[in-house]
Amino acid sequence: MRALFVFPDRPRAVPALPRVARVSAMLRPTLGEAPMRCVIARFPFDLVKSEVESKMAGIRPEEVTGACVVIGRKVFPVKQVGEVITRQDRRDFTAAEVTRALVRLGFTCHATPPQAQSPAPAQSESQPQPQSPLASGSTPDPFGGIGG
Fold this sequence. Notes:
The protein is of the alpha+beta class.
């Protein structure tokens, strides 16, 4: 085994950063947003909102049945976004972990899919609209004529 000699006039060798830190430092943008450290499936990730948006830009959203996130104008399932940004299998993390990270980055998340805004149905003038009892001025009997 080699002995390590320290010379006072020479600087000490600085230990290299772990591979994860080096990769995240290379991916870090030079201007703009600071990365957010998020832990998903026990692994730390340095995420930036603009990077998440750019990764999801060319991806078609799957059908949303549960938790979802709005990225740009599209609504993605949280698990799909987590799979893309972490490159892990969907079974390795929970939707809550990804939702927590995305909310911290500033995305809008929903527990259930938002209702699509449908246009109001066109009212036909030939069909009369039924009037409610309140509109006619009479009040309905709450007991249905029972009792007195």
